[in-house]
Amino acid sequence: MSIREMLDKHPRPTTLDREALLRCLDECVECAATCTSCADACLGEQDVQALVRSVRLNLDCADLCDTVGRIVTRQTEPDLGVIRTAIDACVTACRACAAECDRHAAHHEHCRICADVCRRCERACDDLLATMG
Amino acid sequence: MSIREMLDKHPRPTTLDREALLRCLDECVECAATCTSCADACLGEQDVQALVRSVRLNLDCADLCDTVGRIVTRQTEPDLGVIRTAIDACVTACRACAAECDRHAAHHEHCRICADVCRRCERACDDLLATMG
Amino acid sequence: MSIREMLDKHPRPTTLDREALLRCLDECVECAATCTSCADACLGEQDVQALVRSVRLNLDCADLCDTVGRIVTRQTEPDLGVIRTAIDACVTACRACAAECDRHAAHHEHCRICADVCRRCERACDDLLATMG
Amino acid sequence: MSIREMLDKHPRPTTLDREALLRCLDECVECAATCTSCADACLGEQDVQALVRSVRLNLDCADLCDTVGRIVTRQTEPDLGVIRTAIDACVTACRACAAECDRHAAHHEHCRICADVCRRCERACDDLLATMG
Lengths: 133, 133, 133, 133
What we know:
Four copies of one chain form a homotetramer.
Chain A: H1 3-8, H2 18-44, H3 52-73, H4 80-103, H5 109-131
Helix pairs in contact in A: 2-3, 2-5, 3-4, 4-5
């Protein structure tokens, strides 16, 4: 992604840990796309009735990952409280979505992959929070 | 808004307090539009240099209000932890945005209105959280 | 909505027809919320299998209405080509979503309401396009 | 990105050209993040006054790329008219944003990179449209 290069050229980089921030940003972007795809794949399955909770949590998780990806990308005049609580919501959504997708992982490969991506995003968010003290 | 009528017809309404939920939803939708407008109005001002923090926080607040509006609208298979942490992030963003817009309220009417709308949204979010125990 | 008041205070209002713009903006915001709600209500129905196309088109329509609502809200340095093509996509999504929701209107009140809101939004978008020449 | 793997496991892949679709999707996701970053970097520059149009077009382009990325990711029950007009709006936004960022490329590296990413996204969108007949 060109985003690393973009942040290199930023006139006012934040004081956040650079590598932790880039990993969080990358994982949020990937998790948003993966959850959008998993909601849609679940919707296309014959047993969609059994996957209703998975669709719901995928939609919430996609929306939160999109928003946190944007907030973490912005470097100018950050408010640490906003960043912290937004990442916290993202962690909660990733955890809930991974737990639900795990229940369907044996029958649906897209749920297995999605659960993995959610867990990776949860970890990257947690790691960025840890560097923020 | 037709959203009240939509929720009346929902096959599985959540157990959340209905009036508190509707007010939170309405205020999130209005706050998202107002913050998008305030960021844009600040950008159009001669003294945009002095309004950089306001633009930044308006963009964060608009994104979070949009996302929380969507999450609170969804009634099917909710995860209370996701709802709670998402609303919490919204409260934090509304408070930060109102505080910054207040600083410019004497010179820019759009900042004065935006600060008021953010505070109303913060209150509606807090009220919904309070009903969730 | 406070958005009318916000646009009154804008330092650089666009040359677009003010009433047509406000109506388009209001309808986009309402249609986005209604489609988000209808997708979720369909997902909660016993016969979700029969409503898969409705969910899909509701999700597309919600995303487009959200984005067009933001673009039309912004007054500073607009690009008319971007505004025109974005509204055109919104019109197409509203029409497709209304047609599908109509098919379920007899069995699901939320689909009936959603089809009406989509048609109103389509009309408001068309009217704004007409004023743009 | 895991999105390629996700689409491999989809129960109902669309009839769209698979490689063209994946490239369009990747570029939309990257362009959305890059435009969000460029708007923020412009906002942080000393000469933000000269970059107002760039910020505005970056915000529009980020919103459209996000939405088109989501629409193109969805495979279940697509409406080709919605996909076509949405991609068309994205092409228009990428072209307008690239043209404006080009004007600042000599002074701001983030604008130079952003213009390149917008042009790549414009091309990937055009290529997908071309395969749709």
